[in-house]
Amino acid sequence: MKAEIITIGDEILIGQIVDTNSAWMGEQLNLHGIEVFQITSVHDQHEHILEALANAEKHADLVLITGGLGPTKDDITKKVLCDYFDCELVLNEQVLANVTERLTKRKVSMNQLNKDQALVPSKCTVLNNSTGTAPGMWFEKNDTLFVSMPGVPFEMKSIMSEEVLPRLAKSGKAKSIYHQTVLVYGIPESMLAEKIEAWETALPDFIKLAYLPSQLMIRLRLSAYGEQMESLQEEVSRQIDQLKLLIPEHIFGYNGDSLAGVTGRLLVKAGATLGIAESCTGGMIAHMFTANAGSSVYLKGGVVAYSNEVKMAILGVKSETLEAHGAVSKEVALEMAQGVQQALHTDYAVATTGIAGPDGGTDEKPVGTVWIAVISKQNIKLERYTFAHNRERNIMRSSQATINLLRQLLLTENPHLA
Amino acid sequence: MKAEIITIGDEILIGQIVDTNSAWMGEQLNLHGIEVFQITSVHDQHEHILEALANAEKHADLVLITGGLGPTKDDITKKVLCDYFDCELVLNEQVLANVTERLTKRKVSMNQLNKDQALVPSKCTVLNNSTGTAPGMWFEKNDTLFVSMPGVPFEMKSIMSEEVLPRLAKSGKAKSIYHQTVLVYGIPESMLAEKIEAWETALPDFIKLAYLPSQLMIRLRLSAYGEQMESLQEEVSRQIDQLKLLIPEHIFGYNGDSLAGVTGRLLVKAGATLGIAESCTGGMIAHMFTANAGSSVYLKGGVVAYSNEVKMAILGVKSETLEAHGAVSKEVALEMAQGVQQALHTDYAVATTGIAGPDGGTDEKPVGTVWIAVISKQNIKLERYTFAHNRERNIMRSSQATINLLRQLLLTENPHLA
């Protein structure tokens, strides 16, 4: 099955917004075994939209249309669709009921613009919009399916997930699919590929693997295609168990997890508390933990010790240590961690000291050098990294590396949590 | 002049990458007075690309093509272009010299794939790529211009900025343009529009104003079109001076500035130091300052006081104050700021305490409530805000509000810095 995506709206053409809708739809269709062969973004203009529809019909079995359905622009897309499918606008009771219910909930009284949203081309099947007032519309013409949806991303996504994809799957036009994403940290892509090559080659034909690398991790997406959802889930879960045996220390979570979120949950399960001492990461580690709801359960607090004065006054770093080894040293990292652990009375503590850049590097300690200390009441881990990137990425990478070392120490000391 | 953008590459169609190139090109063309009427993304497939080119030629005076020029995919786009323009690949010495120079610098020896990059369709004018090895290519056919560029964003941007836009301006096909962006904080868009309505209406015809609102600020972009760059600059600068008189307290910077960057520069100029005490913002304020190079000049450090224990132990907040007023109160915010000012011996100090959510709200203090204290040695500012958003946005908005209050206090106490 071949698909084309048509997005309607000037905002995309003048670069006011980036078209993330098409990428999301392209990914979803691809996952369901439908090939997208063209994406076309056009002006809010009658003749131009008609031409785009006609061009798409020549090649595509499925045409997904977004945009041009907001209350102010209502007329354009719907009128074009009426023209194209040779029909007229009629009142749809199902849509009117949905609009009425949504407005009543929001205590808004209905005006003419709202009422007009219940007018739809007579030849369409209405698709329910569970998150907004503009309905989805489904048309069939010769052998091509056309679906029109609002351009608001969360409305488009709910209509796609709740209506379009299930209907396509039901009709046998899309494959039914199950996917799980395994989150991997601390191994370069090429080395990962080598380590899991045999496993990858042995995957059954109906499971596809995709490498999705980003700045912070590599996501491995397993997509299983078939009839029986239950057996797909079983097989994917079995394959992930085997993968775990190959790279146990690198898999930190699944799907929407983050390293700080996962590590925070380990701290909660261990009933342990955390203190953070940051120099070069400047508050980023604290931010990564506190971005997650519920972090106050385990996080007592942190100290951003940017100046040596603060390292000494608040964290108790000794002036002799600073003089003998410099601020960027394992000795200072350790005293910072011990200092915050004592001052805040925590079970675990982490500390960073390094050179984020762009200035301050030397031959011995170039920009990107960072010393990380992670300690518990029994153990000490000290690691040096050199992240030779720009300031922003050095801060980000140092923060992630610190959180990962803490995660590893938590798992070593609490193996039942793994 | 009407333009169409054609992007070539499967990555966009399967949603592996979001097409940010087209948004950037659309914005640039729009700024130069060229209307983009369609963006088309197509497969890496010969016939399909030919068809897209022919369709574009029907409507467009300018066709910008990106992608399909990487060394591995080299053949596809260039061969299609040879077909379309009825010519063949020839060796271009200028491109060969550029490729040789770039590889020599990187100490890489040249292979056949590299040499092939110097092969270009005989009917094109080569556009220099100052950041990569694949050249831009400029074709004229009947009344339509075609420009092919690599899809790597920074390579495309440098060819557009250094070659394509200047050539279009020189030929009179694009308008020459000067733009400045004024950064505005702390006023809703509708109120801003009302306040500057008379100024906006009185703008000369050759200056266009665009409102670009985002989560953190409103950017007002002034674009001046005309022949004489110098007089454009003078007039824009004169208009900005008038704008400053209307909303002096809301303009914090220009173009690529950030609130923390601007405020940090004020601290440097004032020769003053800063300490930060954060509860609900959890390290975000410290991160916003330390994201800027050179922040160690003024930032002594910060304390993330997530638990009451830390508020008391490190910041000296009194247990009676916590009991009498609760952690989210102006009294606690003030004691936190005073505590960090004393502990770190700083001139200025800021503190936040609030409920980021999603839990922890009450009728009296709903999620999004935050108390902010900003103090110097002479002055105290205490403000309560209610940001009724999700956790992420509450943290972000509270952090920005705090930095802005500090900026205002700095300007009040050091009027010569304004």
TrEMBL record, chains A, B:
Task: Please report a single Pfam family linked to this protein.
Answer: CinA_KH
Residue span(s) of domain MoaB/Mog: 4-171
Q: Which InterPro entries match?
A: CinA, CinA-like_C, CinA_C, CinA_KH, Competence-induced_CinA, MoaB/Mog-like_dom_sf, MoaB/Mog_dom
Q: Which SUPFAM superfamilies match?
A: CinA-like, Molybdenum cofactor biosynthesis proteins
Gene3D superfamilies, per database record: CinA-like, MoaB/Mog-like domain
Q: Which family does it belong to?
A: Belongs to the CinA family.
- Name recorded for this polypeptide: CinA-like protein
> What's the source species for this entry?
Sunxiuqinia dokdonensis
